[in-house]
Amino acid sequence: MRLRINGEYHEVDANPEETLLHVLRDHLNLKGTVNGCSPEKCHDACSVLVNGKAQQSCKISVGSLNGDRIRTIEGIPEEHPVRQAWKTEGVQECDHCKSAQIIKTISLLSRMLNPAQIDIKEALNTGLCTCGENPRIIRAVNKASKSSYDS
After folding, report:
1. Other C-beta atoms lying within 10 Å of the C-beta of residue 54
2. Which of 12, 23, 38, 61 has the greatest number of beta carbons closer than 10 A?
């Protein structure tokens, strides 16, 4: 199977029914996409960009991907305005939810340049931090929205 991930093509020997999450982590060693949910609560920790839109990689079978552009946190450069906003605002990086927050923010800002606080909370709903970082995260999204960038 051939997958386009972070701008590069990868040949993967995987069952078409395997989830994208499993293939990213176990076949391609891209560990930034986190398997962080419990049966009781989804945190969207496994979010990736598929054709520019945030998607839960645990719900996508690799066999359903037909030339789709997949972007993981590893494909988001450190100098990207969203990552820079996280640093500037001092958002703590526990790595459990950070990558999904960044992915979902990029997806949000690609369709809404100046989101209101309610839009941010809705877009990041299950990905908002349980560590008390939400005010910093919202400030970071607002800061990133002021930057022009190619998502």
Report:
1. 22
2. 23
Start-end of H helices in the chain: 20-22, 81-88, 98-111, 117-123, 134-145
The domain over range 81-145 is classified in CATH as 3.40.50.2300: no
- Cα angle for residues 11, 50, 9 (degrees, 5° grid): 20
CB 112, CB 119: distance < 8 Å: yes
- The residue type at 88: T
Could you tell me whether strands 69-71 and 2-5 are parallel, antiparallel, or unpaired per DSSP bridges?
parallel
Looking at residue 106, its pLDDT comes to 94
Q: With beta carbons less than 8 A apart as the criterion, state whether 101 and 136 touch.
A: no
* CATH no., domain 2-75: 3.10.20.30
pTM of the model as a whole: 0.88
